[in-house]
Every structure is written in structure tokens, then in C-alpha cells.
Design a protein that fits this description.
This protein has about 180 residues and is an alpha/beta fold. The chain has a single domain, classed as Rossmann fold. About 25% of the residues lie in helices and about 30% in strands. It is built from 5 helices and 9 strands; from the N terminus they run αβαβαβββαββββα. Strand 5, helix 4 and strand 6 form a beta-alpha-beta unit. The two termini are about 20 Å apart. The mean pLDDT is about 90. The chain binds inosinic acid. Inosinic acid (IMP) binds next to strand 5, helix 4 and strand 8. Inosinic acid binds next to strand 5, helix 4 and strand 8.
């Protein structure tokens, strides 16, 4: 595959690498202030949140722990069902920890609602959510997201960890996927 083949699959760049990094720096300054004197545990769900996790963790000028989970949604189709199975659990014990879930994107919010309830049941001292991107649908569900990067339109986006059929995760920015790719 030629490099240009990837570009031809994208209609517009929604966020550049610089815009993302600037926003992550802003969020990191808030986290440093909110967790002063603590050692938060950053938790990300594989694979989409890997880039956000890597950049948030490196931007923080404080001690943190990082940990990962892998989950799979039950059911077919592209719609999130909110019913989730754990494929790889966290290594860390959450009891008494200040946990921050690091997410790439919230669409329906169903996955996140499940994750929040699951981690909450493990006895953390606190539990907050950081999401780089939030789609309009997310406003309809009762998931309290403390740190939001960008509110984006209801388009299918790829890059910076986000995929379509496992492609495009390695783009540096976030772009809208051209309809001809999935139609
Ligand atoms: P939710 O349960 O509907 O909030 O699903 C969120 C998950 O769906 C994210 O973690 C992504 O894996 C995926 N997702 C939602 N919207 C997009 C998109 O525009 N591009 C790529 N993946 C998406």
C-alpha cells in the first residue's frame, strides 16, 4: 500500500498532531493540580486509547502508574451494546487508588458506563474519566467525564489510536474517514 492510499481514504483532518498535544498538555496541567500529592493510576482500554495514554502519561510531571485492560463487546454490528467481556484484566489492585480512566472517544457511552461501574466496584478512593474525543450522542448518557479534550461532530473518525477494521490507528492526527471506504 502506498502512503497516498491512506490519504485518499480521508476527507478532512479534524485535529492535527499539534492541536492534540496542546490539548493534552492542558488536561495534564489540570490533572497535576487536581491530584497534587497523589499518585494516580491511569487505566486505558486497548487498543484505541494507547496513543492518548502514551501522551497523557508523558505529559504529566508527577508519579503515575499505568495499566491496561482489553475488553470485547458482545453482539454483532457496529453499534455498541454496552455488554462487555473482559479479555485481559488490570494488573493493579484498585483498592484505595485514585483511578483515571483514559479513553479515546465516547460515542454512545455504553462501554464507558459499564467500565466505570466495573472499576467502581473494586474499591478505588476516586474514579474519574478522561476522554480525548466526545461525540454528540455522549451527551445523552449519564457518564460524568471530568476531562474532555474535544467535542466533535457525529462523523466516523480515525487516527491517533482510532481504527476502521484495524487500519488508520497509526495516523498522527484525527481525520474523517471517507464514505467510499465503508460503503
Ligand atoms: P460507545 O460505547 O458507543 O461509547 O463506544 C465507544 C467505542 O466505539 C470507542 O472506544 C471506539 O472504539 C468506538 N468508536 C466510536 N466512535 C468511533 C469513531 O468515530 N471511530 C472509531 N471508533 C469509534
Amino acid at each position: 500500500m502506498e502512503l497516498s492510499d491512506v490519504q485518499a481514504d480521508l476527507t478532512e483532518t479534524l485535529l492535527t498532531e499539534d492541536q492534540i498535544h496542546e490539548k493534552i498538555a492542558e488536561l495534564a496541567r489540570r490533572i497535576e493540580a487536581d491530584y497534587a500529592g497523589e499518585r494516580p493510576l491511569l487505566v486505558a482500554v486497548l487498543k484505541g486509547a494507547v496513543m492518548v495514554m502514551a501522551d497523557v502519561a508523558r505529559e504529566l510531571r508527577m508519579h503515575v502508574d499505568i495499566d491496561f485492560m482489553a475488553v470485547s463487546s458482545y453482539g454483532a454490528g457496529t453499534e455498541s451494546s454496552g455488554v462487555v467481556r473482559i479479555l485481559k484484566d488490570l494488573d493493579a489492585d484498585l483498592i484505595g487508588r485514585h483511578v483515571i480512566i483514559v479513553e479515546d472517544i465516547i460515542d454512545s457511552g455504553l462501554t464507558l458506563a459499564w467500565l466505570r461501574a466495573n472499576l467502581e466496584s473494586r474499591g478505588p478512593a476516586s474514579l474519574e474519566i478522561l476522554a480525548l474525543l466526545r461525540k454528540p450522542e455522549a451527551a445523552k448518557v449519564e457518564v460524568d467525564v471530568k476531562y474532555v479534550g474535544f467535542d466533535i461532530p457525529n462523523a466516523f473518525v480515525v487516527g491517533y489510536g482510532l481504527d476502521y477494521a484495524e487500519s488508520y490507528r497509526n495516523l498522527r492526527g484525527v481525520a474523517v474517514l471517507a464514505p467510499h471506504v465503508y460503503s
